[in-house]
Amino acid sequence: MSASYLEATARERILAVLDAGSFKELLPPAQRVVSPHLGQLDAPVSFDDGVIIGEGLLGGRAVMAAAQEGGFMGGAVGEVHGAKLVGLLKRAIAKQAAGVVLLLETGGVRLHEANAGLIAVSEVMRAVLEARAAGIPVIVLVGGANGCFGGMGIVARCANTVIMSEEGRLAMSGPEVIETANGVEEFDSRDRALVWRTTGGKHRYLIGDCQQLVSDDTEAFRTAAIGALGSIADTQLTLASLEAEQEMLRRRIATFGHAEDPMDIWAELGVARPEAVPMLEAAAFTAMAERLRIVSKA
Asked: pTM for the full model?
């Protein structure tokens, strides 16, 4: 029986993605490691600060894993939250784990502790790249209701592989942020169809920001994560791979910089009926999109 990844909590997701009975939590709620800032502002705290970290098995291979809880401040990153992620990545390097799996659901940095949160996100980025440089693949899963935005959106793109569902969203700035900064004429955050065809999994897959699209099912995410862990042959972070990513971004801007709507991009990529894309199931969509999507050539 399938279980929705979108509707699951962070704890339910991490237990479903890793091998049954293998997860061992680090800094669990019982240790009450909370944000030092929220209490000073009379804001609620969470005893895990909105992120679960630990180690376990994925397809029989020892990995480190983390899951952000979108139900606590939208999964936003603060000082402790970020420190837990950095510590997990450093532990992965020290223990030479087979990989790191990050189940991301976040609106970005926590406004209550913005400076500390911004520093924390930058440290997470560095730790991800250090893990990759040490030969440890980093796999990101995005399928929660809050999406993956802000600095953690950049963290996601620093990983080896991003796996998304159609319901997941990935971007630097969220729809409301864009609307506030540039006006509703630039981006109407209430237009849900526009939001999803701009930041949703299908668009991210087509333009190369997401390497695999799966259905909204915890088992589908697990299967994809196992496959990704086994298929990443060369996990070393190289200058050639970074240059290939930059070239892909350059080509995207040069080719689609004039586009005013994602459907314009889909049409130029050769999608026969762009208006039908939102109606396609994940498997049918990937079969159609595989030969059309933008990928980097390392």
From this structure: 0.94
